[in-house]
Write a structure and sequence with these properties.
Blueprint: H1 4-19, E1 24-28, H2 33-44, H3 65-72, E2 89-94, H4 108-112, H5 116-124, E3 129-131, E4 146-149, H6 150-159, H7 162-170, H8 177-182, H9 184-192
Antiparallel strand pairs: 1-2, 2-4, 3-4
Length: about 200
């Protein structure tokens, strides 16, 4: 479900990576609004882990609804704002480095440990892809495994509007909607627009 241009670019990326002994594997590519909505709502309901900024599970019972919303946003996009919905972004690992049967967790430790050589190579070789969630930019925790295909993602960034997002959320079953709408300007500034290319 990646956009054709993104899929073609990723094939070229993979061909070059294989020359260096890597075997890129997509752990997560396209994700629909409904899928992101399910992830979001399950976190609000405590059916999925909610992580603190260090990636450690939290007891959400002690959080206010606004605190819960802000904490979920550290690691999960609000439905309608996930770059995975665009068909231009993907989470990638080096399956050649993984032991047989290994289940990738997409953690910082994994990225610089088990998949460290791949990420070093990736830092020097982009093929139109770039890392979006980097330290010091916005409030989403760093995700070195998340790649965005810039030529196609840029087109979507240019058409993104707060009005369309608010309408889409209002017509959905998203939990914490009042808190989201009360903080929408902050969410867009800190979790969405800061990652757009200028």
């Amino acid at each position: 479900m990646l956009k054709p241009e993104t899929a073609n670019a990723f094939e070229n990326f993979c061909a070059e990576a294989r020359k260096h002994g890597f075997e890129p594997k997509i752990e997560s590519g396209y994700r629909s609004f409904d899928r992101q909505l399910l992830i979001w709502n399950e976190k609000v309901l405590g059916k999925r882990k909610v992580l603190d900024k260090n990636g450690k599970p939290l007891d959400i019972a002690s959080l206010s609804e606004t605190e819960l919303m802000k904490t979920i946003l550290l690691w999960s996009a609000l439905p309608g704002t996930s770059r995975h919905e665009w068909g231009t972004d993907l989470d990638v690992i080096d399956s050649a480095a993984a032991p047989e049967g290994y289940e990738a967790e997409l953690t910082i430790e994994e990225s610089y440990g088990l998949f460290g050589k791949f990420h070093e190579w990736l830092s020097e070789n982009s093929f139109g892809f770039r890392r979006v969630f980097l330290p010091g930019i916005g409030r989403v925790q760093p995700e070195p495994w998340h790649l965005s295909y810039v030529p196609e993602a840029r087109k979507i960034e240019q058409s993104f509007t707060a009005e369309n997002l608010a309408e889409r959320l209002g017509n959905s079953q998203v939990l914490l909607l009042p808190q989201i709408l009360d903080n929408l300007d902050w969410i867009l500034k800190e979790h969405v627009l800061c990652y757009f290319e200028k």
